Amino acid sequence: MRILSALFVAAALTGAVACGGPRAASDPTASLPAWEGRAAELFDDSLDPAVLGLSIERPIYRGDLLFRERCQAAEHVARMKLTTVTLGTNEGKKTVTLGFTTLERLAGAPPPPTLEASFRAGSPSFGLIERMQGKLRGKTAVVAWRTFREDGGAVVHSVVAPDDPEVVAAVHENVALEDLSK
């Protein structure tokens, strides 16, 4: 009887391993951070109106502590060209997906040649992007982004800043400050 029980337990364990075992071991998103708390504040899917030339005052990014933290926490920061704007829905909520082409790596790991970043209804810049979608194509911007674990998958969340020499200098300064603190 003990041999039969041992064989049953061994078969059950083999079956568990063959079926993938615990989900975390086979889940490619398990190592990604969750999009919550401070991470959701940093990568809040916002687009600075200055990208569209809608700011009366020139935005100040040098010395901006929030922008510094975003640059230092981002997987990638790059100058990018906005190539596509696509309206859609996801789980019943309106979305706008912006397609970018990488022009220049500024910080973080080498970026992919293209990026798609979705902005859902309720995100800080959704209304602006939806209204101004036709004026976005062809614009260049500085994009900081990170991939997060969300709703069982990998989701990119980003922050889009104007492609301005001051913003680019701020990115370089923020990365240099991070290197100095190590």
Fraction in beta strands: 25-35%
Helix content: 25-40%
Compute the number of helices: 7
Q: Going across the biggest sheet, name each strand in turn.
A: 1-6-5-2-3-4
Rg, please?
A: 21 Å
Q: What is the average per-residue confidence, as pLDDT, rounded to a whole number?
A: 84
Derived from helix and strand composition plus strand pairing, the structural class reads: alpha+beta
How far the N terminus sits from the C terminus, by CA atoms, comes to 61 Å
Number of strands: 6
What does the secondary structure layout of this molecule look like, with pairings?
Blueprint: H1 2-18, H2 23-26, H3 37-42, E1 46-47, H4 65-73, E2 76-90, E3 93-108, E4 114-120, H5 126-131, H6 133-136, E5 140-150, E6 153-162, H7 165-180
Parallel strand pairs: 1-6
Antiparallel strand pairs: 2-3, 2-5, 3-4, 5-6
Helix pairs in contact: 4-7
Account of the 3D structure:
It is a single chain. This protein is α+β, with helices and mostly antiparallel strands and 182 residues long. The protein folds into two domains: 1-31, no CATH class; 32-180, OB fold (Dihydrolipoamide Acetyltransferase, E2P) (Beta Barrel). It has helices at residues 2-18, 23-26, 37-42, 65-73, 126-131, 133-136, 165-180, and strands at 46-47, 76-90, 93-108, 114-120, 140-150, 153-162. It has a six-stranded mixed sheet. Helix 4 packs across helix 7 (165-180). The longest helix has 17 residues, at 2-18.
